Amino acid sequence: METRSLGTSEVQITPIVTGTWQAGKKQWAGIEDSETIKAIRTAYDNGITTVDTAEIYGNGHSEEIVAKALADVRDRVVYASKVFATNLKYDKVIAACEGSLKRLQTDYIDLYQIHWPSGNFNSERVPVSETMAALNKLKTDGKIRAIGVSNFSRSQLEEAMQYGRIESLQPPYSLFWRQVETDLTPYCVEHNVSILAYSSLAQGLLTGKFGTDHQFAEGDHRSKNKLFADKENYARVQEALDRLRPIADRKECSLAQLSLAWLISQPQTNAIVGVRNSEQAASNAKVTEVKLTAEEIEEVSNIGRIVTDRLDNTDRILWDF
Prior knowledge:
two-stranded antiparallel sheet
């Protein structure tokens, strides 16, 4: 699989990134460690050499699962992890990174990201200058290769950039959720910041596997996602999927592959995709084989607006920790 530069750094990432929130198991139903390990390894075997995790995913369990899957090929993969909002003071950033290094069984993390801005989840407010000072120290010491942020607004990203080079932004971004395009994408294009889109399949909606009367298993956080929970939104989702299916058939790919191919064709954008099993991982790896013309990209974009034009963009969907 082709690789792309992560911002201005020397780190090379694949346009499809294996996401491992599910690997932590917390807030997910029906996740088995053995299947997750196989899935992560299958993704690697099929060319997806970049994997994203975080200390908060299952309180470190996700990072441990990543290590079990890939420790023997560490020199051929790119690890991206994140420090949570409760650990943004200088000493806590350093300690959190050491914890992630241990769980990942590695002596460096390729991309280390601020998971949420200070103050989220009732966390202590810490100046971003202090957090960036710790991240810059970790980079100087060779513990991390690049710095990124997640869930930052444009103003927050601009502020962080005053204290060090930010190579990536990780926002929720999919065909059905496109807030990032209004002001963050232009900034990222101008400053060569890579976008690592999470919830790239709108938490499974863009697979087309959820019918009109779908009910989630107890404990599945997606029941709170307003694209699922709001009946009018959900009806528009189904309408959009019906219009996307003929395009997917024409391109001889799945709805998920079509949606991801559209996403990675957007400026600066790469797609983080979660995996439950090896079949999903192998399917994700084929996304780069789906070549969309400019006309097809616009056609898919317009269909997506059936959903996005009616969303209240002042609200936050419960996408991620």
